[in-house]
Amino acid sequence: MSNIFFISFLGDENIYYISTFIDALELKINELSEKEKVNIYFICTGGRNDFTDCLIDILNENQKKITLIATGPIYSNGLLIYCEFKGSKKMLSSTTGLAHLSSFEPEMRDLLNVYSLSSIVKYQVENRNKKLTDLFTPLLLTDELERFCNGEDVYLSYERLKKMFRIKQSKLTNNVKNRK
Hints:
disordered C terminus, alpha/beta, 8 helices, six-stranded mixed sheet
């Protein structure tokens, strides 16, 4: 079992770190035997949608070789990555979550032109928000979903996330509790 860490905000300033992580993941996966897996300890406070979509695609392409372990904040697109990952998932007790809709601040003059970048991105954000709403509707409680749909941030505790994802206590967390 190999371990690697992903601790990042998916923004332009971290593009080198993100590409280094992807390279390291590829190397680790290529080194594994048929039955081995790599643990990815995952902390992500959100970021750009395009980086998020790429990371989801790469992780799911290699899902049989990966266990994604949330530890710390998984906010915004970080929570989306965790939700959309189709492979094995775990969660440590230090995990918290944040769900919210995507946003985009267009210039009003651009919105009048249906071919402007603002209009195109506005359309993409609206589609993404529909996808997010469809994804989170079965996971969030009624009051959480109402706040989510109203554009509010919905913070989620470790206990709430465990229930959302039907995750059992991790062995690591149990060992820490048993030592006290």
